[in-house]
Amino acid sequence: MTALVWLRNDLRLHDNPALHAAAELRQGVIAVYVHCDAYVTRFPIAPSRLDFARRHLHLLTTELARHHIALQVLRVAQVSEIAPALARLARDHGISHCFFNAEYPLDELNRDQQVNQLLRAQGVTVKRCHDRVVIPPGKVRNEAGTPYKVFTPYKRKWLQLASLLPLRPVEAPAHQAALPCPSASAQDIDHLFEGQELRDLSTPWPAGEAVARARLQRFVAQDLDHYQTQRDLPAVAGTSGLSPYLAIGALSPRQALAAVLSRTGGDWNANAGVSTWISELIWREFYQHLVVDYPQVCMHRAMQVHTEAFPWRQAPEDFALWRQGRTGIPIIDAAMRQLNATGWMHNRLRMLVAMFLTKNLQIDWRWGERYFMEQLIDGDFAANNGGWQWSASTGTDAAPYFRIFNPITQSQRFDPRGQFIRLWVPELAGLSDKAIHAPHLAPSGPPPGYPAPMVDLGASRKATIALFASLGQAPAGGSDAADDIPAAPGTGAGPGPHHPG
Ligand SMILES: Cc1cc2nc3c(=O)[nH]c(=O)nc-3n(C[C@H](O)[C@H](O)[C@H](O)COP(=O)(O)OP(=O)(O)OC[C@H]3O[C@@H](n4cnc5c(N)ncnc54)[C@H](O)[C@@H]3O)c2cc1C
């Protein structure tokens, strides 16, 4: 009898609960990775993220083999073929147990349910572990036993619960006596992705859990203490850059948290950098929990039902200018060009470009959500959907619709010398630090080749506020006069308390 572990977005050996549990049976372990073509066509996924998975699998097959765990890879065309393919594998290899780490979006839950049923019907014991989050969904509840809709009380409760947990990452899997079957070769792995668009971004994003752990250690040792003051400055590498590794599961949130707590001797509030970074990990967790508690978000639905009536504009030409970074608003263009070139975008800029698309161009957040997933190497359904719905004021804990970032004042505040803009919009490099944020306002106007703003920021902001107000159920509090989200007390630059970044 052999144990099977089905790997998905958990491509690592260390602190992998499903892999660990399978190895603990000490009866031989086969790991399997299934590539489904329909997933790639039905759900947007960036070619860089596909290639990131391919590169991780290359490393993983060798690492697993060192532990005498064989990696098998399967390619299927349709989602409905996944369960039968795994059932066949289980039959062929005398599998007694199958372990996998939970994935929470609705389609993944349905897929796993099919696998569960088919394997159980054939006598296999199936175990689902929780790995993607520190606290499993359904556990962070308010007094009434219902899910939180607002981040701050969720975070308070989450911290209470997490402080009671051991939070020790599980060990790497035990070495097995012998390889139960040959491991996938490099060609087998490459064959999984044949015919699909791949994009090699290995220079900015080298693969492997060793790289992820080293980046984590470096961030915690060098940058964590300054995180609070640096994290909003896109020209500075002040954030961890760990999102691609967390998204593909080369790193776990427990490992991230454990590294911080080990540095601080268990102090969750050692300084503002520490508590703010932990807060970001909790935002990540909040969004993962939301897709379970509010599964309608997995069906292209707005979290706040009344906002479904917002008359989003069908404006493909404007959408194309946004995608290409040719809006005439330098910080927006720099951000979109960073995304297109590197498969990643700074968090502050994700919020800015998302608000610009939805609030100034009044283009449906779902268009932006999809484009992000098509480009991001860290594409993660829950975080992306949560971020888009937050920015569009359609989501839970949404930014009140009347608070709309002004990209020019944001640019002056967070890229004061225009370094980030100069890097990504070289046609503006010659402008002064003052002019670079709004070249159309400079006496000489924008340099040749750079467009004038595609939209009037003030007028579009007013129009959007009026449209949201007409939807009826405006959030209580706030005022029409509010613009940027206010700074957090004491920071002078940070966001307000309900702000994911
Ligand atoms: C519109 C929009 C779309 C987004 N799409 C994604 C996505 O597809 N995948 C993704 O991982 N993040 C997404 N985010 C969240 C955030 O922008 C990125 O996680 C962050 O920029 C990653 O950089 P970092 O690893 O240096 O983060 P750090 O600042 O170092 O934060 C540490 C980790 O916390 C998590 N995190 C940080 N901020 C957030 C947040 N606001 N929401 C959820 N998790 C967070 C990430 O896993 C991140 O790696 C999105 C945000 C917005 C506004």
Q: Radius of gyration, Cα only, in angstroms? A: 23 Å
- Give the CATH architecture of the largest domain: Orthogonal Bundle
Share of helix among residues?
Answer: 40-55%
Q: Which ligands does the model contain, each kind named once? A: flavin-adenine dinucleotide
Low-confidence stretches at least 5 residues in length (pLDDT < 50)?
474-499
What's the CATH topology name of the largest domain?
Answer: DNA Cyclobutane Dipyrimidine Photolyase, subunit A, domain 3
Biggest sheet overview: 5 strands, parallel
N-C termini distance: 48 Å
Task: Please write the CATH class name of the largest domain.
Answer: Mainly Alpha
Percent of sequence in beta strands: 5-15%
Order of SSEs: EHEHHEHEHEHHHHHHHHHHHHHHH
Strand neighbour order, sheet with most strands: 3-2-1-4-5
The number of E-state strands comes to 5
Can you give the mean pLDDT?
93
Q: Structural class of the secondary elements?
A: alpha/beta
The total count of helices amounts to 20
Q: What is the number of domains?
A: 3
Task: Please identify which CATH superfamily of the largest domain we are dealing with.
Answer: DNA Cyclobutane Dipyrimidine Photolyase, subunit A, domain 3
- Give the overall shape: globular
Cofactor: FAD; (6R)-5,10-methylene-5,6,7,8-tetrahydrofolate
Keywords: Chromophore, FAD, Flavoprotein, Lyase
InterPro entries: Crypto/Photolyase_FAD-like_sf, Crypto/Photolyase_N_sf, Cryptochr/Photolyase_FAD-bd, Cryptochrome/DNA_photolyase_1, DNA_photolyase_1_CS_C, DNA_photolyase_N, Rossmann-like_a/b/a_fold
Family: Belongs to the DNA photolyase family.
